[in-house]
Amino acid sequence: MMRRDSLIALLSLGLAAPALAAPPAPAKTMSEKSSSAPSHFEAETRAWHAGRIARLSSEDGWLSLVGLHWLEEGETRLGSAPDNALVLPASVPARLGTLTRKADTVSLALQPGVSVTVDGKPFKGGALRTDAEGSPDTVALGTVRFFLIRRGDRLGVRVKDAEAPTRKGFHGIPTYAPSAAWRLEGRFEPSTTGKKIAVPNVLGEVEDMVSPGTVVFTVGGQEYRLSPVEEPGSNQFFFIFGDLTNRDATYGAGRFLYTDLPKDGKVVMDFNRAYNPPCAFTPFATCPLPPPQNKLKVRVEAGEKRYGDH
């Protein structure tokens, strides 16, 4: 049963007690200042979320995403005219040019009189790098940007517009009230075999991703486990997880969480920083989904809630 002092603490923060498992008692954290001063913890959490909202709603953030077009072998005409194979926003010329795919190479030929930049420099045409090679070449014209992405054997064109209705009409994301009870210290169990886990995505594909091990933590006296994945060049763990709030309060396809790397065999899991994947805001993202072992049978009532009708 939930301890009386834990229940009082939750109610004081405006949170209802979870139906299936009580939140744990406040855990030891990386920041002693946060654990000893709840007001500082809440301020830190809200500041982190404000930064998250600023990135999401920036001119180049996920809310500016307006299109995704998968390229077939050969030529693809693009521009704002509706008879183009790849239709761009109305601010772009009716005929911008042609993308030509030859196996894994894509080049752009511009129509006469059309001026664009790539990464801020004038671009007259030629081959374009994809995101599989690090930062992709970003073609820009006015408020519109597009670049190439690789997903498995697919090559696609991702289109962003700073004037996108999704960006202009954005008014924030509801969240649970910050709660130190959901900042947990987990035990890291490293993998000694360089194991990979199968991670599905919204395209119906499955990618084998390197997982460094498993983090074990306790909620309401019950142990739970989550497997992070490693991202190239990152110095953090990345968790793709689901929980029982996905049914009614949070995004149905799960949420994301980053943590610092283990310290003395421990990982701080601050679920107050659990956030919605890009697919919660746009149909043009290619989000990973929680692998089966990362679907928690508990309500994680912390972090971002469901956005709009998603």
UniProtKB/TrEMBL annotation:
Keywords recorded for this protein, A-Z: Signal
Source organism, top-level taxon: Bacteria
InterPro entries to which the protein is assigned, alphabetical: DUF1684
- Cleaved signal peptide residues: 1-21
Instruction: Locate the coiled-coil region(s) and give their ranges.
Output: none
> What name goes with this protein?
DUF1684 domain-containing protein
